[in-house]
Amino acid sequence: MRTASCSCGQLQIEVNGEPRGVGVCHCFACQQRTGSVFAALASFNVPYKVSGTATEYLRTGDQGAQFLFRFCPICGTSLYHTEIGYDDKVSIAVGAFADPSFPAPTASIYDVRRHTWVQLPHGTKTFSKDP
Q1: Would you state the pLDDT for residue 20?
Q2: Domain-located, residue 41
């Protein structure tokens, strides 16, 4: 079992097992949402358990997919999201696990918007946009 938490601890999500995948996204929406130059996300299979109260934000991606982001209404941490129509997985902000041994990303999407100084782990598969 793994637990990810917002900065103040009010909102938490628990998942079981290893991630389906770990990736980074360099799209402008993720850069603005995180306040960083990319978002680091880990995808997990259901079930998952959420405790605390989340505020939701629905965003439509460049290719029409809809993502429901959940964040803490107290500290503002963007903790996890789901994609509408894909109820079998959840994506969680890697940093929210506060685990330096968490697996490295294997995929980089919207690489066309990656800041030139960001170096990816060796062997990371890159996609110009969202595959």
Answers
A1: 96
A2: yes
Whose CA is closest to 109, among 1, 32, 24, 42? Answer: 24
Distance (Å, whole) CA 103 – CA 66? 26
Q: Is residue 37 part of a domain?
A: yes
Q: What single string gives the DSSP state of each residue in 17-70?
A: SS-SEEEEE--HHHHHHHTSSSEEEEEEESPEEEES--EEEEEE-TTS-EEEEE
Cβ partners under 8 Å of residue 31, min gap 6: 37, 38, 39, 113
DSSP letter, residue 96: G
CATH of the domain at 40: 2.170.150.70
Predicted confidence at residue 98, as pLDDT, reads 96
Decide if 12 is inside a domain.
yes
* Residue 121, in any domain of the structure: no
Q: What is the pLDDT of residues 61-102, one digit of tens each?
A: 888 899 999 999 999 999 999 999 999 999 999 999 999 999
- Note the pLDDT of residue 92: 98
Strands 125-126 and 107-109: parallel
Whether 1 contacts 14, CB under 8 Å: yes
